[in-house]
Structure formats: structure tokens, C-alpha cells
Amino acid sequence: MKKYLVLGLILIGFTSLASQIVLMRELMVVFYGNELSLGITLAGWLFWVAVGSWGIGRFFVERVRHKLAFFVFAELLLALFLPASIFAARAIPLLLKTSPGEIIGFLPMTYSSLVILAPTCLLLGFLFVLGCRIYAPKSREGPEHIGYVYVLEAIGATAGGLLSSLLLIRVLPPLYIMLGIGLLNLGVAFSLTWFLEEKRSLLLFPTSILILLGLSLFSFGKVGDLRQASLELRWRTYHLLTSRNSIYGNLVVTEKDNTYSFFNNGLYNFTVPDKLTSERIAHFALLEHAEPRKVLL
């Protein structure tokens, strides 16, 4: 069991940093590239993780009788919250009743970020404390055992940060990344379930169903449909043609009334064809010639 628990502790760190990078990028797009949103998101992340570890973990872990079973259950919830947070982030303009392109104010930006981050961050903070107690029970409690858990979590966080920054965000959309990380957590939960003395069947069935559901979504190409549905929550008044991510941000192309608009991190850049702008450019050139006949734009 210990090797699977070690893998689970590493995965906590991996999930924490990888999901933080993905969610911070996603919320920055929702808030139209406002750099203030990065500070709000990071502050909210640290706050909720602290509440989950110091607040909930400190006073609740010792009251949990079946700690390993609760660890498995928390991993299962985490796998659900990760993709759900992408949907929730993209639904912010709909919930706040703002139009595409309308800048979201500081207070709505703050409380919407805190609400979306809360479930994932609370669970991650609590899982760390619970993992410490399972790995180093009171009979073997000591700084060296707790230190091992910190090292394992740090290894996972380093791997998650490097892999997400250098590879995942370059080749995969955010929803694919979150679903993939969720499946990894379900895999660890499924492995740990077999070591439960009690409540094994109670947790084995939903974990197996969720793993099969996740694999089916990838196998039958339904993740793309979910991604499209989540994007249309934001661009509901436009016909969304495509949305692409890079290391620099998000680029969206929409169509309306036979014109194509380009948005970078949610901010409007330009529209084509733009007859009004083209006419203005032509008029400046025409004024410079006594008898203009042809204009090349």
C-alpha cells in the first residue's frame, strides 16, 4: 500500500501546481487579460489551501476514523472538481450577466474567483494534512516523517509545474488537461481502494464508474464536445469558430453577420472585413494625389 500512498502524495503536488497554472490562465482570459486577476487568483489559491490544511485539516483529520477511505473519497471529489472548475470559470460572464468584451469589475472578479477556487483548493489543502497523518501516524509521528511528505509533495509540484508550462499548455486545451489529471487521481484512488478493510465496495463502484466514464469521453471524442459547450458559455452571443491556446495566451475567432472578429485573452483585436477602416485608409491616400484612379489596399 505504501508505494501507492507515496504516488498519491506526489500526485497531490502535481495536481496542485498543474491545476493552478491552468486555472490562472483560464481566469485571466475570462477577465480579459487583466494582470490584477493573477494576483487575485494566486491570493485566493493560497487562502483556500491554508483554510483546507490549517483550518479543516487541523481540526477534522483526527476525527476521521477511516482515514485511508476518506483519502480515496477526497481524491474522487477532486477528480470531479477539476473539470467542473473550467466550466465554472467560463460561465462567469453568464452568471454575472456581462456581455462579451465588457470588463468585469474588481469586486465581481474577486468573489467569483474565490468561489470557483474554493472546492479544489480546500480539498488539496485537506488532502495534504490527511496524507501526512496516514503516512506518519501518531505512533511514528516526527519531523523526519512529516518531512518525507513535504519532499514527495514538492517533487510532484515541480513535475507538475514543468510539465504543464513546457508541454501540456502547448499541446492540449485546458479541459483536456483537467480531465487527464482527474483520471490520474482516480487511478490512485482505485489502487488504494483495494487496501481498505472497510467501505471498499462503497468506494470501488463509483471510482470504477468515473474511470470508465472518463476513458469513454476520450475514446469516443466527446471531450471536444464538452469543450465546445463550455466555450459557448462565454461566447453565447457570437458564433464561435475556433479557440486556440499558446504559451502567450488565448486566441478566439468568432463570426457574426459575415464578419470575423479576433480576440486575444478575451480582448477584441480587430474584425475582417472592416469596410469602414478600409475606406478611411483609402481616403488618406486619395487626398495625396491630384487625380487618383486606382488604390491598392
Structure, explained:
This protein has 297 residues and is of the alpha+beta class. The chain folds into two domains: 231 residues, Growth Hormone, Chain: A (Up-down Bundle); 50 residues, Spermidine Synthase, Chain: A, domain 2, CATH 2.30.140. Helices cover 70% and strands 9% of the residues. Strands 1-2-3-4 form a four-stranded antiparallel beta sheet. The longest helix has 30 residues. It starts with a helix and ends in a 10-residue tail after the last helix.
Provide a short characterization of the protein structure.
The protein has 297 residues and is an alpha+beta fold. It has helices at residues 2-30, 36-60, 67-90, 92-96, 106-135, 143-171, 174-193, 200-219, 222-234, 275-287; strands at 239-246, 249-256, 259-264, 267-272.
Please describe the biggest sheet, giving its number of strands, its sense, and whether it closes into a barrel. 4 strands, antiparallel
Shape: elongated
What proportion strand? 5-15%
| Quantity of strands, as a count | 4
Indicate the mean pLDDT.
Answer: 86
- Assign the CATH architecture of the largest domain: Up-down Bundle
Helix fraction by DSSP (H/I, runs of at least 4):
over 70%
Distance between the termini: 70 Å
Low-confidence stretches: none
Biggest β-sheet: strands ordered side by side in the sheet: 1-2-3-4
Helix-strand makeup class: alpha+beta
CATH topology of the largest domain: Growth Hormone, Chain: A
Per DSSP, the total helix count is 10
Order of helices and strands: HHHHHHHHHEEEEH
> Number of domains in the coordinates?
2
CATH class of the largest domain: Mainly Alpha
Radius of gyration: 24 Å
